[in-house]
Design brief:
Layout lengths: L1 H17 L13 H9 L13 E3 L2 E3 L2 E3 L1 E12 L8 E7 L9 E7 L4 E7 L27 E4 L30 E4 L6 E7 L5 H7 L2 E7 L1 H4 L11 E9 L30 E4 L2 E2 L2 E5 L2 E8 L6 E5 L5 E6 L2 E9 L2 E3 L4 E7 L7 E6 L17 E8 L26 E11 L6 E6 L17 E8 L5 E5 L3 E9 L3 H11 L7 H4 L17 E4 L3 E8 L19 E5 L2 H4 L4 E4 L4
Parallel strand pairs: 1-6, 4-7, 6-11, 12-16, 15-23, 24-26
Antiparallel strand pairs: 2-3, 4-5, 7-9, 8-10, 10-11, 12-13, 13-14, 16-21, 17-20, 17-22, 18-19, 18-21, 22-23, 24-25, 26-30, 27-29, 27-31, 28-30, 31-32
């Protein structure tokens, strides 16, 4: 069977190449030193942090929010990442080519008010960045850039989840095998909070997001949130979308054209790291702030980079939420480790600053956790310029936030073992691909929970990297992180049997126990899975803010997925189906 699948993939690749759907031609080789020089030539903190345009996902009728339909397109255009860098060609979201931005517009929805969005593809016949047809990839027969949109953190029907197989090209000229509708429906029934939307096309997620297909999505409920008294309004409640990029001298976005093992994967490399740090589409921007409280919704939209964020003036972050949900009470943190696709909702009180400026800096090694330390470029994020407040700050951070359902691990009806593997080339020792439970995305679903239930997943990381685990639809929380002892023996057994129980995991997962940080003890959609550890997560397949069932049929086709959110890993192919059953 596998031979037939591989032959079919090969034929699809040949047909696609014959039809002109091939990666763009490589420019002259560029060295890391050259990329650093380009980034280093850009003066920091000269561009103001952009406020992304806002699109309301509802209309007001008789004083109440009502459902509407939106049409949002994907366009190719030019974007200025820095004052002194030539404009870059990007793929971006917008209601028109003229208004499209990097990141895309922030969609503001109302809790309990459904929103319908028709996503349209106006992208050209060929991609602006290289991609690799030797990893599982959407390759249309007649050319075009395949895309499909996933609302990250959303609770919505499977048909609106943005399946990797539901891709489509410009004008819906070609569609993937799971495509069913041009219009997605988002119930917005979940707790108020920040989400984000991005491309999710098979094998192209890393290239399409690097090109710019991402944007923020905020669900609000004034009746619930206003009594909390947190900073509010466009000036004091800001989304910060972090993303690293490298650039050629002509402003083009850099992505490698040569793979780590070219005779196996001509283009794929295990991680992309950029030299410049962009926030809301500007490299190292600044933001003028008053001496008062500000709320920042920080989203790491990088391909592979983790951020360990802190402020150089010593001000702490007061964390009020993580991913799409509030914490039950605020937690103060001197620094924040933000994995790929993870979100933290924080308050910073600049009235307590002893300085007139503060840099937001990054100390996370790359790859995380054992890679190289950040340099003078990717160790900087943005700067805050602090001035006296012009009006009284009436905001506050309350002692109590919002409550959700209890973790209740004892209610679990199923315990599953989820094992992360990295496979290496015998000749070079470099990675060739990554799997979960030794299986491909195309293999039948083995994770088949029932709606309304709780499960415990024991996630075992047998790779050298920390992986941000993301489950579509479900909400989950890490409860324990336990080190593996005699790890080599366990790995050897798993390589032969691929069965944690038969390999006596209970004897190995008895090492050092690492505490889950207080500000991560909430209901999340991304959890960090440390290498050499077994992380216990409690997964809820219902609405955690109310305890109620999903207000849609979560068992419908094409189902959901779960995956590592390092995009280069997800594309090759650390992703598995998640199929709810009745």
């Amino acid at each position: 069977m596998r031979a037939k699948v591989e032959l079919a993939v090969l034929l699809l690749v040949l047909v696609g190449v014959a039809a002109g759907t091939r990666p763009p031609s490589a420019p002259p080789p560029v060295t890391e030193d050259t990329l650093q020089k380009v980034a280093g030539s850009l003066e920091m903190y000269v561009d103001e942090l952009p406020q992304m345009p806002k699109i309301y996902g509802f209309s007001m009728r008789h004083g109440h929010p009502s459902p509407i339909r939106l049409t949002i397109g994907m366009y190719q255009k030019k974007w200025k990442f820095h004052r002194d860098l030539p404009a870059s060609t990007v793929f971006v979201f917008g209601t028109s080519a003229a208004t499209a931005t990097f990141p895309g517009p922030t969609i503001e929805a109302a809790q309990g008010v459904p929103l319908s969005v028709t996503w349209q593809n106006y992208l050209p016949a060929r991609h602006i960045l290289p991609w690799d047809p030797t990893v599982p990839t959407a390759i249309p027969r007649r050319g075009g850039v395949p895309t499909v949109v996933h609302l990250h953190g959303g609770a919505h029907p499977p048909q609106s989840d943005g399946s990797a197989f539901a891709w489509f090209t410009a004008g819906f000229g070609e569609t993937g095998p799971a495509w069913s509708t041009p219009t997605y429906t988002y119930p917005n029934a979940q707790s108020p909070g920040v989400l984000w939307y991005h491309d999710h096309a098979l094998g192209l997620t890393r290239a399409n997001l690097l090109a710019g297909l991402l944007g923020a999505y905020v669900i609000r409920n004034p009746a619930v949130e206003a009594p909390l008294g947190l900073p509010c309004g466009d000036e004091f409640d800001r989304v910060l979308m972090l993303a690293d990029r490298s650039f050629y001298a002509d402003g083009s976005i850099y992505m490698n054209y040569t793979g780590i093992i070219p005779n196996i994967h001509p283009q794929w490399q295990p991680e992309y790291f950029g030299e410049a740090i962009t926030v809301n589409g500007k490299a190292w921007p600044f933001l003028a702030v008053a001496r008062r409280r500000y709320r920042f919704r920080i989203i790491n939209t990088s391909n592979a980079r983790y951020f360990n964020l802190s402020l150089t003036n010593g001000l702490p972050f007061t964390v009020v939420g993580s991913d799409t949900n509030y914490l039950s009470k605020p937690v103060t943190a001197a620094s924040l480790l933000v994995s790929v696709a993870e979100t933290f909702d924080v308050v910073v009180d600049f009235s307590q600053s002893t300085t007139s400026e503060a840099e937001l800096v990054n100390t996370a090694p790359y790859p995380y956790p054992d890679g190289q330390a950040p340099n003078d470029l990717n160790g900087k994020v943005m700067k805050f310029v602090i001035s006296p407040a012009k009006a009284k700050d009436t905001s506050r951070v309350p002692a109590k936030l919002l409550d959700y359902v209890a973790v209740a691990e004892e209610e679990a009806v199923q315990r599953r073992y989820i094992v992360m593997y990295e496979y290496e080339d015998a000749a070079t020792g470099n990675p060739t691909h990554l799997y979960i439970n030794g299986k491909r995305l195309e293999d039948p679903a083995t994770e088949t929970p029932r709606p309304g239930t709780t499960e415990v997943w024991e996630v075992i990381n047998l790779t050298p990297d920390n992986h941000p685990l993301h489950l579509h639809l479900a909400t989950f929380q890490a409860t324990r992180v336990r080190g593996l002892v005699d790890e080599d023996a366990f790995k050897g057994c798993m390589a032969k049997l691929n069965d944690a129980v038969r390999c006596n995991v209970s004897r190995h997962a008895v090492g050092e126990e690492v505490a889950v940080p207080e500000h991560e003890k909430g209901w999340k959609n991304v959890v960090k899975i440390a290498p050499g550890y077994m992380t216990t997560i409690v997964v809820k397949f219902f609405m955690v803010d109310s305890g109620k069932p999903y207000p849609f049929d979560a068992t419908a086709e094409p189902g959901y997925v779960y995956h590592c959110h390092i995009l280069d890993h997800e594309d090759n192919a650390m992703i598995r189906p998640l199929k709810l059953i009745k």
